[in-house]
Amino acid sequence: MRYELYYWPGILGRGEFVRLALEDAGADYIDIAYDAETGPERVDQGLAFEHNPRPPFAPPYLRAGDIEVSHVANILQFLGPRFGLAPADEAGRLWCHGLQLTLTDFVAEIHDTHHPLGPGLYYEEQKAEAVRRSAVFLEQRLPKFLAYFEQVLAHNPNGDAWLVGNACSTADLCLFHVVAGLRYAFPKAMRQHAQAIPGVIELTENVAARPGIAAYLDSARRMAFNDNGIFRHYPELDATH
Q1: Cβ(200)–Cβ(207) under 8 Å?
Q2: Which of 23, 122, 202, 208 is most deeply packed, by most CB within 10 A?
Q3: Cα(175)–Cα(203) distance, integer angstroms
Q4: Does domain 2-83 have CATH number 3.40.640.10?
Q5: What span, in angstroms and rounded, lies between the C-alpha atoms of 238 and 188?
Q6: Which of 110, 101, 88 is nearest to 181 (CA)?
Q7: Confidence at residue 240, expressed as pLDDT on a 0 to 100 scale
Q8: CB 191 within 8 A of CB 241
Q9: Domain ranges for the chain
Q10: pLDDT by 10s per residue, the chain, length 241
């Protein structure tokens, strides 16, 4: 099956969480984000009722034959079992999905450090609020989320290499990307927390070493982090820690 991933060109954004699963599996897929000329128009068409009887609210969304799935956690719940990136048992799949939803909450809080008043305003229009929001995030929320995932790894009865069971899952791929994004956005803070999360750090190294992921990270398909996505590096925000 050929998959079609719809997301905005030029940014990693939430589409990257889906890309990692597709790349890890070596799936045959088309990424609309690589088409800077027609990509935005094709994404918009999929969001319009006149072109799509059941349009999603926003990208990313994925088309697989006659099936269309929106929202990162929903897409990965769909792809995980197909790619061997989800537990075989229902309880394990639900646990994995719950971790994915926790990562969704984490990503939303990371985004709001630089846009605390909403995406309708430029960063420069809410910079003072962003500085204040980031200070609270780095002091309270960042260590709480990281400590949670460290504990998940430590209490995995099948070993501490992966979050769920004894194999890599979509949740592991997403945690890898969140940590990479945090290292870009808040390098000072992440260096300070590194010693407290050895399991999380090891997980990111294990994910990066997977053949499909390693090849992807070394390819032109992997876009660089920039200040138009979820993870943005503003030194004044990292300096609040």
Answers
A1: no
A2: 23
A3: 8
A4: no
A5: 6
A6: 110
A7: 55
A8: no
A9: 2-83, 90-222+233-238
A10: 899 999 988 889 999 999 999 999 999 999 987 877 788 888 899 999 999 999 999 999 999 999 999 999 999 999 999 999 999 999 999 999 999 999 999 999 999 999 999 999 999 999 999 999 999 999 999 999 999 999 999 999 887 799 999 999 999 999 999 999 999 999 999 999 999 999 999 999 999 999 999 999 999 999 999 989 999 999 999 975 5
CA distance 70 to 49: 15
* Inter-CA distances, 12 with 88, 89, 184, 218, 238, Å: 30, 31, 13, 15, 21
Q: What is the four-CA torsion angle of 217, 224, 33, 134, rounded to 10 degrees?
A: 120
Distance CA 28, CA 102 (A): 29
Q: Each residue of 166-188: b (16+ CB within 10 Å) or e?
A: eebbbbbbbbbbbbbbbbbbbee
Task: Please state which CATH class domain 90-222+233-238 belongs to.
Answer: mainly alpha
